[in-house]
Amino acid sequence: MNKVILMSCLVLCSFCCINTANAQIWIPDDIAQSTVLIERFRFQYPDDVLEDLDEYEDEKEEFIEATNDNLEKYNNRLDELFKGYRHNYKTVPISKIKELYPDKKQYRYVLKREVFFGKKKALNPTTKKVENKSYFAYRYFFYDRVTRKEYMPYYFSGTQWDQVERIVFWLNKAAAQ
Fold first, then answer.
1. Where along the chain do its domains lie?
2. What is the pTM of this model?
3. Distance of alpha carbon 57 from its chain centroid, rounded?
4. Mean pLDDT of the residues in the chain
């Protein structure tokens, strides 16, 4: 019995370590040495986003319009959550980066956002059955202005604000190492 418990603990521990290590692959190693530029929410035309999803056009439009209708509120919330980041950052309209922050060494990394379409299994409370559910969300990724490299996107289930809080958590953790 003790061997089973010990083995279970080791497996669980190794799983947690693997997840922690993988969670930071999307963050540049030298993130704390740069002032990170955080893309602010901006107006988007629904037709310019994920053009090949005709079947989900109504859901896509609702998602984009919700953002467009709340730009100031969303950007204020973004600013508020990033105050928890312990290193230098600026929230900035993506179109103003070159003009406002030309020094690519000081302002090397940009945390960008893009609309993402996904499907997941979810419990339908009415039927009590697990069903496929489609959804729209944002996924975040770093862009290196020096090498012009895009890092792999960060995915996290939860609300969009839970996701931003987790990003700040992982950035603090990565910068402390």
1. 2-176
2. 0.78
3. 23
4. 84
